[in-house]
Automatic annotation (TrEMBL):
Alphabetized UniProt keyword annotations: FAD, Flavoprotein, Monooxygenase, NADP, Oxidoreductase
Name of the gene: pamO_2
InterPro entries (UniProt xref): FAD-binding_Monooxygenases (IPR050775), FAD/NAD-bd_sf (IPR036188), FAD/NAD-binding_dom (IPR023753)
UniProt similarity note: Belongs to the FAD-binding monooxygenase family.
Protein name: Putative flavoprotein involved in K+ transport
Cofactor(s) listed: FAD
Coiled coil: none
GO molecular function, one term: phenylacetone monooxygenase activity
Species this protein is from: Mycolicibacterium chitae (Mycobacterium chitae)
Domain FAD/NAD(P)-binding: from-to ranges: 6-204
EC number(s) on file: 1.14.13.92
Lineage: Bacteria, Bacillati, Actinomycetota, Actinomycetes, Mycobacteriales
C-alpha cells in the first residue's frame, strides 16, 4: 500500500492523543491519529476491571481547554469510575468531531526518519503506511501491561484474566474460587470488589501496599452546577498547584505532608493520638518521612499498628505491613481495602514467606502450599513510561534505535518531550516529564499545547526539523535525577515502576520530574520564548 503524507501523525487516541489531534487540526495542519484499540479511550478503554476508578476528582481529572466540554459533561461522582471516563472521552471525540481523523484497530509497528525528506515513514499491523513531517507519540505512560514471568501460566485449566485487558462483556466471578496476583493501585481497587462477588478470594501479595481510605460519593446535580460555575477559579488553582490538582487527591495529600511536624520529634503519645484520630493516614502524615529513611521506618511501624486496629487476624494484619519505604511506590487510596481481609471468604498469602513456585492446571503453587482456583486475575502492573515506544521499531537519524538508546542509556529525554537523534518526534510525557508525579490530565494539556505551539513555530519560520541536543538531554536528566536525590525515592530499597525496577533488565532511573507542573511550565515556556535552546532547528 502506498503511504499517505500528513503534516503530523499522532500515535494513540487516549486522553493525550485526542487533545493533540484537536490542537493540531485547529492549527490548520493535516493530521491523523492512529490507535491500536477498537475505540478511543486508551488506558480508560482497556482497564475495565471491577473497581477501576481515578483517584483524582473528576472536575480536575478532565480537560480544561474547552469551556463548552466542561460545562456540558455531567460527572456523577466525586472521583470518576472507569465507565464514566470512557464515556467522557467518547463524548469529547464526538463533540470535537475527531473520529473522522482517527484510524482505529491500527497499531504502529515501525517508523523510520527520512533525513532527506525531513519526515517519518510509519508502518502498521494492517499494512497501512503513513508519512508525516512530525510524529507525536501519545502512546501513554501505563499502556503496556507487564505479564509476570510465572512458570506454568499457560497450563492453568481455569480462566486467566488480566486487569489491563479485562473482557468487554465482564466476567461472572460469582461463587468462584478466585486468586489475585498483585497489590498495587489496581489490585487494591479490585480486591474489595472481587471479595464481594467471589465465593472465595485468595490474595497473593509480594509487596504490601500503603493505602489510605477514601470516601467516593455521588455528585448531586446542584453541587456539580456550583462547581461548574466556579470553574475559572478551580482551573486557576489547579494551574498553580505543583501536582495539577488543588483539591484533595492522593498526590496533594503527599504534598500536604511536607508541611507537617516530624515524626522523629513526636512523643509516643502524639504518635498514638495521630492514629487514634486519623487511622492509617495519621501514621504517615509527618513532614520528615520523605527525606529521612529512619523517620520513614518509624511511620511504617506506626502504620502497622494502625492496620492491626482494623484487621482482626493478627497474622494477616502483620502480613499487610509494607517493608519498603512509604512514598517509593505510587500513593494509593482505597474503599475498604483492609476491612476486606476481615471477611470469611478472603485469605492473604504473603509471598514474602515463600514465593509463587508455579501456576499449575488447578491453581497456584507456592513454597508455602498449593491453592486450588477457578480464576486467576493478574494485576501485575506495566512496563511504564518507555514500554509503548520500545515496542515500536523506531529508527531515527543515522539508524539510531530508540529502544536501544533507552536500553543503553536508560530512560532519557530532553525536557521529557523529545530524544536526541529522533528529529520531529515529540513524546507526550516522556521520561523526565511531570507525568507520573502529577495529575496526568493537567500535565498532558501543558505538553499538547507546548508541542502544538512548537510545530506552528517551525511551520511559520520555515524550519523543516527540530532535534534535541545530546548535551541538553544529559543536563536535563542530571537535573531531574538531582531533584529526587535528597528524598527516600533515591533509597536503594525503593523499587517501583517509577524507576523501572519492576521490569527485569530495565535501566534504573527515577522517571518523573518532581519540581511540579508550574515550574516545569515556566521552564518550557522560557525555552520556547528564547528560540528553543537545547534544540537544533534546521
Ligand atoms: P503496580 O503498582 O506496578 O503493581 C503491580 C503489583 O503486582 C505489585 O504488587 C507487584 O509486586 C505485583 N507483581 C508483579 N509481578 C508479580 C509476580 N510475578 N508475582 C507476584 N506479584 C507480582 O501496578 P498497578 O497496580 O497496575 O498500578 C500501576 C499504576 O497505574 C499506578 O501506580 C497508578 O499510577 C496507575 N493506576 C491508578 C489507579 C487510580 O487512579 N486509582 C488505579 C490503577 C492504576 P511488587 O510491588 O513486589 O513488584
Amino acid at each position: 500500500m502506498s503511504a499517505v503524507r500528513y503534516d503530523a501523525l499522532v500515535i494513540g487516541a487516549g486522553f493525550s492523543g485526542l487533545y493533540m489531534l484537536h490542537r493540531l487540526r485547529e492549527l490548520g495542519l493535516s493530521v491523523i491519529a492512529v490507535e491500536a484499540g477498537e475505540n478511543v479511550g486508551g488506558t480508560w478503554l482497556f482497564n475495565r476491571y471491577p473497581g477501576a476508578r481515578c483517584d483524582i476528582e473528576s472536575i480536575e481529572y478532565s480537560y480544561s481547554f474547552s469551556e463548552e466540554i466542561q460545562q456540558e459533561w455531567v460527572w456523577t461522582e466525586t472521583m470518576p469510575a472507569q465507565p464514566e471516563i470512557e464515556a467522557y472521552l467518547n463524548f469529547v471525540a464526538d463533540k470535537l468531531d475527531l473520529r473522522r481523523d482517527i484510524r482505529l484497530n491500527t497499531r504502529v509497528t515501525a517508523m523510520a526518519f527520512d533525513a532527506d525528506e525531513a519526515c517519518w515513514h510509519l508502518d502498521t499491523d494492517t499494512g497501512a503506511r503513513f508519512t508525516a513531517s512530525h510524529v507525536v507519540a501519545a502512546s501513554g505512560i501505563l499502556s503496556v501491561p507487564l505479564e509476570p514471568d510465572v512458570p506454568g501460566m499457560d497450563s492453568f485449566d481455569g480462566a486467566s484474566l488480566f486487569t489491563a485487558c479485562w473482557p468487554k462483556a465482564g466476567f461472572d466471578l460469582a461463587g468462584k474460587r478466585v486468586g489475585v496476583i498483585g497489590t498495587g493501585s489496581t489490585g487494591v481497587q479490585l480486591i474489595p470488589v472481587v471479595a464481594r462477588e467471589a465465593g472465595q478470594l485468595t490474595v497473593f501479595q509480594r509487596s504490601a501496599a500503603y493505602t489510605l481510605p477514601w470516601d467516593v460519593r455521588p455528585l448531586p446535580a446542584a453541587e456539580l452546577d456550583d462547581l461548574k460555575a466556579a470553574y475559572p477559579a478551580i482551573r486557576a488553582a489547579q494551574r498553580e498547584h505543583p501536582v495539577g490538582a488543588a483539591r484533595l487527591s492522593a498526590f496533594s495529600l503527599l504534598l500536604d505532608m511536607l508541611a507537617r511536624p516530624p515524626i522523629k520529634s513526636a512523643t509516643r503519645e502524639e504518635q498514638l493520638r495521630a492514629i487514634d484520630e486519623h487511622g492509617v493516614m495519621g501514621a504517615l502524615n509527618w513532614g520528615d518521612v520523605f527525606f529521612d529513611i529512619e523517620a520513614n521506618r518509624m511511620a511504617a511501624k506506626l502504620y502497622g499498628e494502625a492496620i492491626a486496629r482494623i484487621v482482626k487476624d493478627p497474622v494477616t494484619a502483620a502480613a499487610l505491613v509494607p517493608t519498603h519505604p512509604f512514598g517509593c511506590k505510587r500513593p494509593i487510596i482505597d474503599q475498604g481495602y483492609y476491612e476486606t481481609f476481615n471477611r470469611d471468604n478472603v485469605t492473604l498469602v504473603d509471598l514474602r514467606s515463600g514465593p509463587i513456585r508455579a501456576v499449575t492446571p488447578t491453581g497456584i503453587s507456592t513454597e508455602q502450599g498449593d491453592h486450588d482456583l477457578d480464576v486467576i486475575i493478574y494485576a501485575t502492573g506495566f512496563d511504564a513510561m518507555t514500554g509503548a515506544l520500545s515496542r515500536i521499531d523506531i529508527t531515527g537519524r543515522d539508524g539510531a534505535s530508540l529502544r536501544q538508546v533507552w536500553q543503553d542509556e536508560g530512560p532519557t529525554s530532553y525536557l521529557g518531550l523529545a530524544v536526541a537523534g529522533f528529529p520531529n518526534l515529540f513524546i507526550v510525557q516522556a521520561p523526565g516529564s511531570p507525568s507520573a508525579a502529577t495529575n496526568f490530565v493537567a500535565a498532558l494539556e501543558q505538553h499538547v499545547e507546548w508541542i502544538g505551539d512548537c510545530i506552528a513555530h517551525l511551520r511559520d519560520q520555515g524550519h523543516r526539523t527540530i532535534e534535541a541536543s545530546p548535551e541538553a538531554q544529559r543536563e536535563w536528566i542530571e537535573h531531574t535525577t538531582s531533584l529526587v536525590e535528597p528524598t527516600v525515592l533515591a533509597h536503594p530499597s525503593c523499587n517501583s515502576w517509577y524507576n523501572g525496577a519492576n521490569v527485569p533488565g530495565k535501566k534504573r532511573r527515577y522517571m518523573a520530574y518532581t519540581a511540579g507542573i508550574p515550574e516545569y511550565r515556566r521552564r518550557c515556556d522560557e525555552i520556547a520564548a528564547t528560540g528553543y535552546p537545547g534544540f537544533e532547528l534546521a
